[in-house]
Amino acid sequence: MQNTQPSTFFWNQLVIPFDPGESIAAALLRSGVFRLGAAVGGLQGRYFCGIGNCQACLVCVDGGSPVEACLTPAQPGMRLTPALQAGSPPWGTS
């Protein structure tokens, strides 16, 4: 018997279902999550180019370094947070 329940990950304590092979960004969009972090330089963190070039969709996985949500496959149990929190400096600056 095949398991028909979708796999899930966590976005800021919110449970997000995803299909096998789906990117983090695609699963978040399908679940109605459009803002992926604080505005930096006047731009809101979000899904934009879909190819990792703009890096507007950076998220942290399990407290690690930022990854592009549009390129990173979703995995069961991941705990995701915005790469930039309100009031934090842009990534890579001191």
From TrEMBL:
InterPro entries: 2Fe-2S-bd_N (IPR042204), 2Fe-2S_ferredoxin-like_sf (IPR036010), 2Fe-2S_ferredoxin-type (IPR001041). Pfam families: Fer2_4. Keywords: Oxidoreductase. SUPFAM superfamilies: 2Fe-2S ferredoxin-like (SSF54292). One of its GO terms (molecular function) is iron-sulfur cluster binding. It comes from the Bacteria. This is 2Fe-2S ferredoxin-type domain-containing protein. It comes from Rhodoferax fermentans.
